[in-house]
Amino acid sequence: MLLKGYDDGPLVAGEPLLARPGFWSNYLMEMCGEGASAERPLPEWFGDDGADTDALSEVLFDPEAWPVFRVPAETVPESW
After folding, report:
1. How confident is the model over 22-36, as pLDDT tens digits?
2. Which of 50, 8, 7 is nearest to 25 (CA)?
3. 40 contacts 33 by C-beta, under 8 angstroms
């Protein structure tokens, strides 16, 4: 499902992906890989299976459907 108001781009709602196995290891391994440690981060560090992480990587980096994670916020007062 493309997001309303973004008809020209391949943006899709990503919130359902947050609960899928492999999501957090995809997110956190990138940050861990930038550290000073010579050890390569593994999905198992985050309680995920490598196959789940790889499968979700294909979804997250699909050029035809870019997941967007929307954050609900209250209305900003007009005085701002």
Report:
1. 998 988 887 776 666
2. 50
3. yes
